[in-house]
Amino acid sequence: MINKKVTSVEEALNGVADNMTFMLGGFGLSGIPENAIAELVKRKVNGLTCISNNAGVDDFGLGLLLQGKQIKKMVSSYVGENDEFERQMLSGELDVELIPQGTLAERCRAAQAGFPAIYTPAGYGTEVAEGKETREFDGKMYVLEHAFKADFAFVKAWKGDVAGNLIFKGTARNFNPNMCGAAKITVAEVEELLPVGELDPNQIHIPGIFVQRIFKGAHYEKRIEQRTVRQTS
């Protein structure tokens, strides 16, 4: 059994450098790797390409990296909650590649599985398909999409063990599982880090083979992106 535990987020991010490509798990603000993002902000690495479902909000999540203009390109599906993202995109400061949400997930999963590319019907006949190979299968047209290539994947789980096995909780089980093993190095931060044998094998969502480094995170804010409550009668 390989012990993949590192003692701190600083150690977990060893090797991070300018101009790298990162995958970052999460959906909205649910399940984002808060500690890893904070460390990237602290290190002031620049020229980053970030693959993430969304770009956080102005003062939290990936929005913190955008504030420092550390990101040169965002590869995302939904970016409607971040005014600074909008400003940088419209001004030409930020390169943006918008991808259908399912295609984003599958390009991550293809990289995880070692597939170079996938065919998907999403985007055929639109700007999404421009310049890409298309092919007909059983009378339906598909677009060829290449698997992502990333240097690091940063994910956040509820529980993990020192071998890298992970359990996600609720809606934090979003893009995180697909990004595990989809980059050269996967770094997992967890709320609870346990010895091997403490996790129920039947509850494990991601086996440790997909994770290279794991650490116990701290001070999670777990913000709610859009709080909706029922009005009192």
Helix count?
6
Query: Strand count, sense and closure of the main sheet?
Result: 8 strands, mixed
Whole-number count of domains? 1
Compute the average pLDDT: 94
Helix content: 10-25%
| Percent of residues in β-strands | 25-35%
From the alpha carbons, calculate the radius of gyration and give it in angstroms.
18 Å
CATH class: Alpha Beta
Number of strands: 11
Q: Supply the CATH architecture.
A: 3-Layer(aba) Sandwich
Apparent shape: globular
Assign the CATH topology. Glutaconate Coenzyme A-transferase
H and E order: HEHEHEHEHEEEEEHEE
Task: Give the end-to-end Cα distance, rounded to a whole number of Å.
Answer: 57 Å
CATH H-tier superfamily:
Glutaconate Coenzyme A-transferase
InterPro entries: 3-oxoacid_CoA-transf_A (IPR012792), CoA_trans_fam_I (IPR004165), CoA_transf_BS (IPR004163), NagB/RpiA_transferase-like (IPR037171)
Protein name: Succinyl-CoA--3-ketoacid-CoA transferase
Family: Belongs to the 3-oxoacid CoA-transferase subunit A family.
Keywords: Transferase
Please, could you describe this protein's structure?
It is a single chain. The longest helix is centred in the middle third of the chain and has 13 residues, at 101-113. The chain is globular, with a radius of gyration of 18 Å. The strands form 2 sheets. Strands 1, 2, 3, 4, 8, 9, 10 and 11 form an 8-stranded mixed β-sheet that branches. It has a 3-stranded antiparallel β-sheet with strand order 5-7-6, covered by helices on one side. Helices cover 20% and strands 25% of the residues. The protein is an alpha/beta fold. Strand 8 and strand 9 form a beta hairpin. The mean pLDDT is 94. It has a single domain, classed as 3-Layer(aba) Sandwich (Glutaconate Coenzyme A-transferase). This is Succinyl-CoA--3-ketoacid-CoA transferase. It holds the Pfam family CoA_trans. It comes from Winogradskyella haliclonae. Keywords: Transferase. GO terms for molecular function: transferase activity.
